[in-house]
Amino acid sequence: DSGTVRYILSELSYVLSNYGDVVRGYAWSLVHAIRAYANLLREYLAYFSDEVEDVVGKVVDLLNELDKLSPSLGVIAWVYALAPALDSEYVRGLMEKALGINVVDKASEILEELNDMRKRVQELMGDKEFMSYIESRFVKADEEAVKKEILDATSHLKDALAHYRLNNGELDKAKDLFKEAAKEYREIGAYENYLTNSGWVLRVEAIKDPLAGDKLINGFRQLYEETFKEPFEHTAPYLSTASLILGNYLVSLALINDVERILKLPEKHWRVLNANGLVSVLTRLMLNALLGSKDRKDQLGSELEGRLNVNPEELINAFGSHMYSEFLPALRVALGIVKPEDGIKLCEEFNDEVCIDFVLAVKGNSAVVKQLREGVINAFNAFNNSLKGFGFDVESLINEFEGLVSGLDGKSLVQLIAPGNSLARLALMLHALINGDKELAKAHALYGAVSVGEKLPKRLYLEAYKECKECCDLGKDEFRRAVARLFFYHV
């Protein structure tokens, strides 16, 4: 949570400020400091958005220090420092400005240095500072441990670089990197990471063409079978990974309408799907969308149909932390979870008048709805330049979005602007499709295109809008492909 994140930042700053000279006497400890900062930058950026520049500055100082104290440790430290920069355009810009580098070029350079280090294991074992770091990481600081550390760093950086390539639409380069990372993770026994990266290899193929045929389906099946083979590990990371891979496999079957294989899925595997709430809800929303016609529901049977359903409360429980908090009470009202008066009480707990306005918009207060509608259109227009270069007439998209939003009531407007990230938006977009609200689904697709920063998801949302523009018919392969690409990008 945010309190823990800020505590870690505060304590790190205190130690480095007050005991810096002592710490620098143990160069290996600086790598751990960089890893701590890098993990926070990569996973919890929103919790300290006002301090990001300061944190990046500290990472830069530590990198410069380490390069002087121990070049070999510096290479390892660079791996972890570059990962959040590859993930975030904002962090990347700060790091490039502070260091005068190109982050992507530096990542390639570090990968070459790591490859060279793999050839110099014996030499590194004579490096006191480097081996002190190995001792801090492994029970036994031997040759095997050195090889494992180098390979772990290599696969970690390839994983981060693969996601950068993916987000920029360089699918083949991303696939190759995911494949290399998977192989290396398996070599060092990091099995969950091996499975995840193997899944990404298939997901990249699915993004290229979700209906590619038997080869892709068999790939998902084989990975599913490998993941669930006995003895099955019941650790939290393994279960979460298994949930992800199962979700991919189920959706790949639904895309070809293979209801029979879905029905044969063991009960205990359905329980594993729920190990990751986000994955479970998104997968079941996707299955409902793809298998939503009456004839397919008849095939599924009432028991399985009930298992696939996602009620609004479950959706909010899974994605509440991915929604803007000031919209949550109104969203609960819009989805029929609570009554308007209860939504207002929830707002009063936050002492937030704007929150109350959103609830009033859901109730149908015309003045608030008008104000909310204008705010949504203004927000879209503020970022519409980001839609250039994707083969769409931006002016037409602006007019179409205004037309869509003008027809949305307060309930739909709140659902449109509540998502705090692309994952939550996809969930609400699928919910709208399942409930036959095609106008809201279209608006989600267009708003998703301007609210996401990376090139690939921006293009995927635009393609989904294009195919949904006429009728949003999930019986048509083109629209099924478009929605499936969004799913495989996110899950």
Task: Explain the layout of strands and helices.
Layout: H1 2-18, H2 20-24, H3 27-43, H4 52-69, H5 71-87, H6 89-99, H7 103-118, H8 121-124, H9 128-137, H10 143-167, H11 171-187, H12 191-208, H13 214-227, H14 236-255, H15 259-263, H16 267-273, H17 277-290, H18 294-308, H19 312-319, H20 328-334, H21 340-350, H22 353-363, H23 366-382, H24 394-406, H25 410-417, H26 422-434, H27 438-451, H28 455-468, H29 477-490
Helix pairs in contact: 1-3, 3-4, 3-5, 3-9, 4-5, 4-6, 5-6, 5-7, 5-10, 7-10, 10-11, 11-12, 12-13, 12-14, 12-29, 13-14, 14-17, 17-26, 20-21, 20-22, 20-25, 21-22, 22-23, 22-25, 23-24, 23-25, 24-27, 25-27, 26-27, 27-28, 28-29
Give a brief outline of the structure.
With 491 residues, the chain is mainly alpha-helical. The chain has helices at residues 2-18, 20-24, 27-43, 52-69, 71-87, 89-99, 103-118, 121-124, 128-137, 143-167, 171-187, 191-208, 214-227, 236-255, 259-263, 267-273, 277-290, 294-308, 312-319, 328-334, 340-350, 353-363, 366-382, 394-406, 410-417, 422-434, 438-451, 455-468, 477-490.
